[in-house]
Design a protein that fits this description.
Layout (H helix, E strand, L loop, with lengths): L2 H27 L7 H17 L4 H24 L5 H20 L3 E3 L8 H4 L5 H24 L2 H11 L1 H6 L4 H27 L1 E3 L6 H16 L4 H24 L1 E2 L2 E2 L5 H24 L1
Antiparallel strand pairs: 1-2, 3-4
Amino acid sequence: MTLYAAFGAIEQGFVYGIMVIGVYLTFRILDFPDLTVDGSLPLGAAISAVAITSGVNPYLSLLLAVAGGFLAGVVTAVLNTKFKILHLLASILTMIALYSINIRIMAGPNVALLGSETVFDSVTRLGVPAHFAGLIIFGSFAVLVVCLIVWFLGTELGQAILATGDNPQMIRSLGVNTDAIIILGVGISNALVALSGALVAQNQGAADVGMGIGTIVAGLASVIIGETVFGCRTIGRAFIAALLGSIVYRLAIALALSFEIGGFRFNPSDLNLITAVLVIAALIAPNLKRRLIAH
């Protein structure tokens, strides 16, 4: 793996790490299996791209993307809490609807940002090389998101989210509206996913309706790898592990794609196979470790 490929993998690890933090919030904190992310990531990209091409400031377009992602999460959570639709089915329904909504927003399957102002231009104008601008922007946003989410979960409202995921009956007996908490939590999760999608679109110079395919698989793989490698004993450590897990996942993918032996090498089409192997390895590693220690 070349140094350039390693930098690219770390860069992707940071930006998709924001998505992973959102996935961790629903799957691990709220115990809410949410497939909406496959639709909310391109939703954020679509909103940001259309806003920028309409003359909106690229940083403001990120806020619009966050708002759009939050609304998508709210729809899923409302379907589950108010209409009693199974959370998995509710998220699938929202994800399917978002495919058409994203095309409607972009007035087509994709939108190009060639020649448009992006958040990276503000960094390159300072004299930073273009190939480092993405690393700086993505890293800054990822660290900021981790700090904000850890701080938020330490507040009274954040503690209510933790308690709702851990023991909903107990927190309900204390007078907390768990439906409202779930709606808020799933909304925040998808807001972070949409932010990730908006940053990816600005970096790639385009938004595409299909860019969210496999998002949930990559997110879960990163979460599992992060927990296995770095541990998750505290809330702060858990979210840092999720972010680092995203970086390790992207580095492992880049390493696998650069691997070659006897004329055999992996192709980008093998990405799902590589992901499955990584997740399986991360899941069985703790058991193997315990068995080795026992012997």
